[in-house]
Design goal:
Shape: globular
CATH superfamily of the largest domain: Butyryl-CoA Dehydrogenase, subunit A, domain 3
Largest sheet: 4 strands, antiparallel
Number of domains: 3
Helix content: 40-55%
Number of strands: 9
CATH topology of the largest domain: Butyryl-CoA Dehydrogenase, subunit A, domain 3
Strand content: 15-25%
Oligomer: single chain
CATH architecture of the largest domain: Up-down Bundle
């Protein structure tokens, strides 16, 4: 899938059949009725094998599904939650060419036309967009109010005027298509507004804080996956008549990696615990994503070094994880944004 740059259909179908696409959706809507922690566990486990599959599941569960569950009207929930749990992939269309880290500088607009809204704009770097059956589109319905006009609209795939562009060619997570999404005169009824008019900025902030915990889980899984691929090789490979794993210098490096991965895991699941307990988690989510992303990069890099030349090839799979790890410092809030958040909130405690 990495070479092809797309998911195999049977993989996506299998994720739906296994109940992994509706982890927190209630059983009354054909979901698994489980917890945020369970969703993070699914994301971590999948990332051990393929972080691209993991992020598809993460975005769908922790962002798209939870936006519907938290703020959508009962009619929208009845229409979409059963589909999101069983056969329909969702995409979250926030970012634009001019609004990455400064997400609320978005230029997409939604103007009234009778009772309906007409949406115009172009989104960039939208994950899941090539297969999505529904898009959550952030557009400004009252530009004169600034970010307080930003509203979330539910736009089904196939709506006239909505088109998905060619996937970007990326360094890593290649199977996870990242595409531009163009909206040209997209007409939606007032019932397509998710939540309240002008509250889109609030929903985006809240859901991305939760989403960062999911990305932290993805990065923990990636790091563990690199270790899982490396340790058997270190125990089998001999140099100078000794297993590589028996050299003290190697043992110390492995011990350091294992400790950092466990610390990252604890940060992630502490943030998940706080979310489920209704406690503030903005700082903790930022810490989890920041540190887990750093650990994933360091671990994948060190694992390649310990495996030597074979680690640099595609045969062992660690080079893919090394490429995949870089995105952890970028999407759903760059590492610099996380540092700003942590510093600001920590200073406010004094």
């Amino acid at each position: 899938m990495d070479d092809a740059g797309r998911f195999d259909a049977e993989v996506v179908d299998g994720l739906f059949e296994g109940g992994f696409m509706g982890v927190e959706i209630g059983e009354e809507y054909d979901g698994s009725g489980s917890s945020f922690t369970a969703a993070c566990l699914v994301v971590e486990e999948l990332a051990k094998v393929d972080p691209a599959v993991s992020v598809m599941v993460d975005i769908h569960n922790t962002i798209v599904n939870n936006c519907f569950s938290n703020w959508a009207s009962e009619d929208l929930q009845r229409e979409w939650l059963p589909r999101l749990a069983t056969d329909t992939l969702g995409a979250f269309a926030l970012s634009e060419a001019s609004s990455g880290s400064d997400a609320f500088a978005l230029r997409s607009v939604a103007r009234r036309d009778g009772d309906d809204y007409i949406i115009d704009g172009e989104k960039m770097w939208i994950s899941n967009s090539d297969r999505a059956g529904v898009f959550l589109v952030m557009a400004n319905a009252a530009p004169d109010k600034g970010y307080k006009g930003i509203t979330c609209f539910v736009v089904p795939a196939g709506t006239p005027g909505l088109s998905v562009g060619k996937p970007e060619e990326k360094l890593g997570i290649k199977a996870s298509a990242t595409c531009p999404v163009r909206l040209e005169g997209v007409r939606v009824p007032p019932s397509a507004v998710l939540g309240e008019l002008g509250k889109g900025y609030k929903y985006a902030i809240e859901i991305l804080n939760e989403g960062r915990v999911g990305i932290g889980a993805q990065m923990v899984g990636l790091a563990q996956g690199a270790l899982n691929r490396t340790m058997p090789y270190l125990q089998e490979r001999r140099q100078f008549g000794t297993r590589i794993s028996e050299f003290q210098g190697v043992q110390h490096q492995v011990a350091q990696m294992v400790t950092e991965v466990e610390a990252a895991r604890l940060l992630v699941f502490n943030a998940a615990r706080r979310k489920e307990a209704g406690l503030p988690l903005v700082k903790e989510a930022a810490m989890a994503k920041l540190f887990a992303g750093q650990v994933a990069e360091r671990t994948a890099s060190k694992c390649i070094e310990l495996m030597g030349g074979v680690g640099f090839t595609k045969s062992m799979g660690v080079e893919k994880l090394y490429r995949d790890a870089k995105i952890g410092a970028i999407y759903e809030g760059t590492s610099n944004i996380q540092l700003n958040t942590i510093a600001k909130l920590y200073a406010a405690e004094f």
